[in-house]
Design brief:
189 residues; mainly alpha; Endonuclease III, domain 1; Endonuclease Iii, domain 2; 2 domains; binds iron/sulfur cluster
Length: 189
Amino acid sequence: MARLGDGKPFLTLVATILSARVRDEVTETVVPEVMRRWPDAESLARARPGQVEKVIKRIGLYRVKSVRLVEVAKKIVEDFGGQVPQELDDLVKLPGVGRKTAGCVVVYAFGGDALPVDTHVHRISNRLGWVDTKTPEKTEQALLQIVPRSWWSRVNDLLVFHGKTICRPQNPQCQICPVAGDCPIPNKK
Ligand code: SF4
């Protein structure tokens, strides 16, 4: 997932929504143009999804995401005074915003405590035997029980990096993995 917009909640929220199932390089080129045209929730709430579509058409699921972005912006204007809420429980009230996206905003925009679980975090936590879960949602709940709160906000960054470089979904590089000694099943695919 792209980690964009540190300290800028609206940018982080937009970037995280757009980044789902999209390569970072694509997200990183599209998000600045979105922000140039619609720098805040008020302006995006006034846009038509068709206008947004034209700007984000390089992004996977761009039609769905165009509608979603405008809906999210409207909700922020109507219910949160135009400001992205800080609390995870409020963020998940935004249309289509799940706990992973909400957690990324809490951590990367507000510097708060959350443990966003994407496919990398879910896969590696299971490979390492930290959890035994079938879904990212279950993984999040399990990790929250075993990871000290002071580490919650670092887990996503660390495991996403590990997942993109070494513990990739296919052909994990177990022979050069620095935590192979702690992994119960090295060479696990
Ligand atoms: S040893 Fe292999 S499966 Fe285990 S964490 Fe390292 S790369 Fe992933």
